[in-house]
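Quick one:
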Amino acid sequence: MTQQNKKKPASVTEADNQNMLPVLPPEGADQLPVPVNGLTLEAEAAKINSFYDEIEKTTCDQNEYWTAHRAKLGHMLNHHQRRVIELGISWTQYAIETFPKLEKRTREKYMALAAFGDRVKPYYYMGVDRAYYLFNKLIHYHNDPDFQHIRSRYAHIFDPASKTLQEKEDVKVKADVIRNFFKFRNQVKRNDIDENLKNFVLDVLEAGCTFGQKDYEYLNQPNVTPSDIVQYLIKMMVTASSPVQQKSSSTSRISIHVILSQLLQTVQGYNAKNFIPEFLSVEFLDSVIDVITTLRHRMSPTNDQEVS
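Output:
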């Protein structure tokens, strides 16, 4: 194809300039690799596509090696974007046509990860998605009261100090909890969820529970009170499932004894060691005590029958 027959690139728009992912000096701007001298725009684009094909052949977990190569690809794309914009070409359309294998959202995450600079490198073990999400929150939501609370509660996540394999796995779990918490906050449109209740939500997420669309629909009902939400969350913790999707079970009479036995052993262990779990929700504990006390008062003093 001759130069005359090539499709003319679209011109740069104001939206392109506004939508460019920010490079964050000094950590970000000085981390971009020096381009190879003499490469044309087309040759540089071909180099990027070739590198993408090469790293996509790698079959491994999203570890430091995997993430580092995606960040390197992001560096290359950031530099290429600058060249394109400087030539007056619309990056949005150019990127779609030039890098068809890279979906827009994926491309933007790689570019943002690279723009975070050296400060994100200690977190490469988390994988692209988790590292991108946490640093995006750090930069754009650092004044958000909920995120400030998250940083206080999970301070060890944001400590770049070297971690053991077990500690890294724990950080990944907590990073997922943070992401699911903000999803909860965005889905549950209420003004009456205080800090204690938010801590309880985090406890529920740490226990491995997840919220679905039916949960959000229930929690958003106007007649549902904060106390109702507490009871709902307790049911989630006890049954490890969504209360709105639970069905009656013939084993419930047995399971309550198993649950109470586990609770008894756990609390006795804490007391024997004079240990209080970090961030144990007082509201959650009080709610458990209240419902157990109410159940006990409903039983006669000599009632030895199974609790249902």
